[in-house]
Amino acid sequence: MKLNDFKLEVYFGKYEFTAPYLLTQSDCEAMEVADLLKFEEGAEEKLLHSWLGYTEVVGSPELRSLVSGLYNNIKDDEIIMHTGAQEAIFTFMNVLLKKGDHVISMFPTYQSLYEVATSEGCEVSRWFLRNDNNSWCIDFQELEKLIKPNTKLIVVNTPNNPTGYTFKEDEIIKLCNIADKHGIYIFSDEVYRGLDLDGIKKPWICDIYDNAVSLGVMSKAYGLAGLRIGWVATRNKEILEKMTRFKHYLSICNSSTSEILSIIALKHSDSLLKRNINIIKGNLNIANRFFEKYDNVFQNNPPQCGPIAFHKMKLDKKIDIFCEELVNNAGVLLLPSSIYDYEGPYFRMGYGRKNFNKGLDVFEQYLIEQKIV
Ligand SMILES: Cc1ncc(COP(=O)(O)O)c(C=O)c1O
User: Fold this and answer.
1) How far apart are CA 137 and CA 232, in angstroms?
2) What's the mean per-residue pLDDT of the chain?
3) Which of 22, 169, 172, 369 is deepest in the core (most CB within 10 A)?
């Protein structure tokens, strides 16, 4: 199997650990181990005396039980823990798909969600999000038109990376009804869940549809990407069994230390999410003022949920050239739409970090110096 370069990861590999102003990150502000341990009395002792042996392939029972508690209709044994979300995507696509299958993927989105299927010899059709009046939308009639007799899978990413577009409950039901009518599986990447800016909790897709797999992770809403803990949830027993067996060839099991730290984090899920929603809302207020001030150059497309948005910009050069010059000359990292194979002068901005304000100031200064604003 030959995989094409993962454009976003290649770009981050070049700049993420050298650029001083990260204005595009999709994970919320992380923390030190010591700060996480403070959330629970006795947690430090628990960690210090934890066993550094192999762990259960599907994840520790306590962790799976906390994760299943996030859902309405999912039992503990309908969860498999993985090393990050990425391992779960790779595993799922490998066990479900074979050469010649047709896959429909929401677009733009995180590359592995369609690239692994492409590498396996599947035909992938793109179900496009459209930018309409400062927000994103998607057309379900278009989805129906893309369905073929050999369509095996619909891949969605809600809240979406990079746009922040998020299905409302009636859209989730519409999607599940369409998939059910045609006997199609759904893979729903929901790694940005938990950061609902409107305060309305939407159902996970696997809570509604038996042949759906929902993907979750500690990296984004919880800001704990270094733990490398993700999971899938599904009521489909065959998929659970096949994914477990595939994992034997990848990480085998998760880091025991990361499992313990994830348990502590999930026991205090509400406090962690509240902290991160507050950071995002504060940064969005600052950004809204910036976009209002420069509305002749930018189109603000604020996110509905999660820490990222995909904004449009008026430019006399290509957006990828602008972003490379910006990071090389001013040290401000933004992700251009070319990374997502998406046409038009869009860039991704991230709102989950505490130093957003400083990065935006440097960005503004650069725009003034370059006479762009
Ligand atoms: C939509 C989406 N899915 C999956 C991942 C992978 O998550 P992780 O780094 O935790 O494996 C990312 C990371 O950016 C993402 O944006």
Assistant:
1) 26
2) 97
3) 172
Where, residue-wise, is CATH 3.40.640.10 in the chain?
53-267
Looking at 3.40.50.10310, 3.20.20.210, 3.40.640.10, 1.10.3720.10, the CATH number of the domain 53-267 comes to: 3.40.640.10
What distance in angstroms lies between residue 243's CA and the mean position of ligand 1's atoms?
Answer: 18
Per residue in 159-178, pLDDT (tens digit) is 999 999 999 999 999 999 99
For 54-65, b where at least 16 C-beta lie within 10 A, e where not — what string? ebeebbbeebbb
Residues 7-32+270-368, CATH architecture: Alpha-Beta Complex (3.90)
Distance from Cα 169 to the centre of ligand 1, integer Å? 23
If one residue of 86, 111, 224, 254 were mutated to test the ligand 1 pocket, choosing by the most ligand atoms within 8 A of its CB, it would be 86
91 ligand 1 Cβ < 6 A = no
Is 0.70 surpassed by the pTM of this model?
A: yes
Distance CA(173)–CA(208), nearest Å, equals: 8
SS (H, E, C) 2-19: CCCCCHHHHHHHHHCCCC
314 class by beta-carbon count within 10 Å (0-12 exposed, 13-18 middle, 19+ buried): exposed
Strand order in the sheet with 298-299: 298-299, 308-313, 346-350, 335-336
Out of 6, 219, 251, give the residue to mutate to test ligand 1, the one with the largest number of ligand atoms within 8 Å of its CB: 219
Q: How close is the Cα of 218 to the center of ligand 1, in Å?
A: 10
Select from 166, 215, 162, 207 the least CA-distant residue to 347: 162
Give the pLDDT confidence of 190-245 residue by residue, as tens digits: 999 999 998 888 899 999 999 999 999 999 999 999 999 999 999 999 999 999 99
Nearest CA to ligand 1 atom 14: 26
